[in-house]
Design goal:
alpha+beta; Creatine Amidinohydrolase, Chain A, domain 1; Creatine Amidinohydrolase; 6-stranded mixed beta sheet; 19 helices; Peptidase_M24_C; EC 3.4.-.-
């Protein structure tokens, strides 16, 4: 199995570890310390050796930060984790705070005293974060102190070793563009920013640029590394050489100079000493890297990491790969749904068994490289935990007459998938059907949106929520995230969310469409497809160039939970057309029994 169901956290250890950290801080003359979830790459995908927040608190979510003072501590998480944090973190040790509604900055201003010294690891906080934190701490009359070594590491006795996943070259047939051509394109963009060199801190950016893949973190083929890319000439790749076979090293050496990770800061200082202008994304790069350039005499050009948009806009080979991956995944998923519908009402299924069975169907494609994230297999009340992670300890039976939510994805060499379906097990209530249908209406509104060139995801987000809002309901997470090409299942810079975002959607981008509704301690509902941004036919009488979405995901939506009386004729037509497409593309690739099930599951409704 690619996914483990072992219990990875123990909230009872949090207070003991917090006490040890406080002793370490006192020995260093510090009054407080900040522990983010991120590692030095500031990404979502963090190796075990850098899961400091999880080690300290027990919290396994993908976003959060802890502030530790001598007499109190608080953990800040977003709306996806407000239930999860209470289950995983000891409240007597760490007060719960909402990352956005009760931000860290306000907490520091309220609780830090004049004259105190608050430490932070300058590799783990971005330049932008440090600027904000420094302003707040200084306003309180205290000092924000960058540390050379991390105090958590000093008290983490059994800290795992750094990962050494093997690096592989990503075939051109899937990449669609040679690394040499990408380097030329990115070099031109760096020159347009009037910089000599760009610092790349995101492993997925480097993987895309050099057409390499790795295995340093779970479920995402990332080779942890940094890079310096000049506007002209050969880039430098900073990576542990033990990850490179002789063959891969020889091929990579034709593209880049290879050095160890410890040589990055000296290289930045050398650029600074030469008076070079270095392009740095201050929202992604650690403060220590920024300081290495500036303190040695160089100049930082602040701007977006130049690979982000080119990586997000998929080329034709990547688009065709995504479609092939989703068709393959659709066949596996249809087999899974048919099995689930037949088996679940008989009893005996658990969250773990269902997650294992879905992975089994995907493995039988012969192309599965990994799951793209830990499957969220959530029975009944666990469905209300947006990013629930099932373990053998939390494993619930899937009961008759209940709602079951499963959010999962696959990594194939030609594409990355991510799909959520909410399924009826036996009879469901009218209220549950109503909430499901309201979520479906939001999903359809995004799927059918036509919007002018230049529109951002934040401008579309309300479409997914308006029907819920009319009923006094909402969901506390984004509507959609970008998705990589055999890379991260969560990929920026585009997204669909309430949060302001200035990235215009462009043809070739892939985003999720996943509105939801969650009734705490009862059930959760989410419907997720991946969508490809495409040019749209012009609107009669209009004069604007328009864009729209093409669904990539090919899987039935559970008609047993749809209250057709709540759908307009337009929405019914979309649902029937979507199901017709699933039948047309997936049906011929199924065995006779599963195809008969699919025909019924995607039957036209009125």
């Amino acid at each position: 199995m690619f996914q483990s169901f072992d219990t990875v956290n123990d909230k009872s250890r949090g207070p003991v570890r917090l006490a040890a950290l406080r002793e370490e801080l006192a020995s260093r003359g510090l009054d407080g310390f900040l522990v983010p979830r991120e590692d030095a790459h500031q990404g979502e995908y963090v190796p075990d050796c850098d899961c400091r927040l999880e080690w300290l608190t027990g919290f396994t979510g993908s976003a959060g930060v802890v502030s530790v003072l001598a007499d109190q501590a608080a953990i800040f998480v977003d709306g996806r984790y407000t239930i999860q944090v209470r289950e995983q973190v000891e409240e007597d040790a760490f007060a719960y705070r909402h990352l956005h509604d009760e931000p860290l900055s306000a907490w520091l201003l309220e609780n830090v005293s004049a004259g105190q010294k608050i430490g932070y690891d300058p590799m783990l906080h971005t330049v932008r974060q440090v600027r904000n934190l420094k302003a707040v701490v200084e306003k309180a009359g205290a000092e924000l102190v960058g540390l050379e070594t991390n105090p958590v590491d000093s008290v983490w006795a059994d800290r795992p070793e750094v990962p050494l996943g093997a690096v592989n070259m990503h075939p051109l047939q899937y990449a669609g563009e040679s690394a040499a051509d990408k380097l030329k394109r990115i070099g031109d963009a760096i020159a347009e920013n009037e910089a000599d060199t760009a610092l790349l801190t995101q492993p997925d950016s480097i993987a895309w640029l050099l057409n390499i893949r790795g295995s340093d973190v779970t479920h995402t083929p990332l080779p942890l590394s940094f890079a310096l890319v000049p506007s002209k000439g050969k880039p430098s790749l900073f990576i542990d050489g033990r990850k490179l076979s002789n063959e891969v090293r020889d091929e990579l050496s034709e593209l880049a100079d290879i050095a160890g990770p410890a040589e990055l800061v000296p290289a930045l200082k050398a650029l600074g000493a030469d008076g070079k202008r270095v392009l740095i994304d201050t929202g992604l790069a650690g403060q220590a890297l920024f300081d290495a350039v500036c303190e040695s005499g160089g100049e930082v050009v602040e701007g977006q990491e130049p690979t982000l948009l080119p990586k997000a806009v998929k080329n034709q080979a990547e688009i065709e790969g995504a479609k092939a991956a989703h068709l393959r995944d659709g066949v596996a998923y249809a087999r899974f749904l048919a099995w689930f519908e037949k088996t679940a009402p008989l009893g005996g299924l658990t969250e773990v068994i269902v997650a294992q069975k879905l992975e089994e169907f995907r493995r039988e494609t012969g192309a599965l490289k990994d799951v793209s994230f830990d499957t969220i297999s959530a029975a009944g009340p666990h469905g209300a935990i947006c990013h629930y992670r099932v373990s053998y300890d939390s494993n619930l039976q899937i009961e008759l007459n209940s709602v079951y939510l499963i959010d999962s994805g696959a990594q194939y060499e030609d594409g990355t998938t991510d799909i959520t379906r909410t399924l009826a097990v036996g009879a469901v209530t009218g209220e549950q059907c109503k909430h499901f249908t309201l979520v479906l209406k939001g999903h359809i509104a995004i799927a059918t949106a036509r919007y002018p060139v230049g529109t951002t995801g934040s401008q579309l987000d309300t479409l997914a929520r308006i029907e819920l809002w009319k009923q006094g309901l909402d969901f506390d997470h984004g509507t959609g995230h970008g998705v990589g090409s055999y890379l991260g299942v969560h990929e920026g810079p585009q997204r669909i969310s309430k949060a302001p975002n200035n990235i215009a959607l462009k043809p070739g981008m892939i985003l999720s469409n996943e509105p939801g509704y969650y009734r705490a301690e009862e059930y959760g509902i989410r419907i997720e497809n991946l969508e490809l941004v495409t040019p749209a036919a012009g609107i009669v009488g209009g004069d604007l160039e328009m864009l729209g979405f093409e669904p990539l995901t090919l899987a039935p939506i559970d008609l047993r939970m749809v209250d057709t009386k709540l759908l307009s004729e337009f929405e019914l037509n979309w649902l029937n057309a979507y199901h017709g497409r699933v039948r047309e593309l997936v049906g011929p690739l199924l065995d006779e029994e599963t195809r008969a099930w699919l025909d019924e599951a995607t039957r036209p409704v009125a």
